[in-house]
Structures are given as C-alpha cells and as structure tokens.
Design goal:
mainly alpha; 6 helices
Amino acid sequence: MPTKSTKMKAKSSGLNKKQLTHLEKRLLEERARVIKELGHYGESFNSSLQASDGDLSSYSFHMADQGTDAMEREKAFLFASQEGRYLWHVNEALRRLYSSPERFGRCEQCGDPIGFDRLDALPHARLCIKCKAREEDGKRR
C-alpha cells in the first residue's frame, strides 16, 4: 500500500504511482529483450568459422568469401555494440527510477516534466522534447 510520502514523491514528478510502475515494467522488458539479443550475438561470436559457413575445412574457397565473412562478423559486432549502448541507457534509467522516483520523468537540463507519452515511447528518455531538439540542433552545426 502506498504511503503518503510515496504519493507525494510520485506527484512531484508529474507521474503517478501507476505511471511509474508502468515505466518500470517497460524498462525491465526492454532490458530483458536487449540481454536476450546480446546473447544471440554472443553465440554467433563464439561459433567458429567452420561452424558459421558449414565447411569442413577452415579455408574459404575464394578471397571474396573471406571478405564476406569478415564483413558479416564486423556488422554483427557493430549491432552488438549498439545494443550494448542501449542497454547502458536502459540500466541508467532504471538506476534513476530506483534511486529517486520523485525526479524520474523530469528533464535533466531544464527540470520540466517529460510527457508521459514520450516516456511511454522512450522510457529511458532524459530530456524533454525541447531540450532534445536543442541538443540535436547543436550536434548538426
């Protein structure tokens, strides 16, 4: 049962207890999905070259085959790296949610509430739409 202080903390961020619980669930689901995806990449990295192409010998028949294999391994590594960065952002959002639920859902730059619709679509968001647009405009210059 929520206490009076818990209700006040949830209200100060503009998010109620039900919304915070929903966002926690979404973050945990995203975390589980990313960890599962990273597990698939780990399996493909651990498989040997022989197993990956089905050949009995460890030599490719043609140099182009070697290039294709190298490109596929690099592409898989880049995707795994991207998922790893995303996992870091999700873990950071969970850390923020658990350490200070009263601040979760507030923009880290201006302090304004981040809309629940934005958080529902992107539960690890740290910035409101205005600050995020400002940040992206600054990167383009």
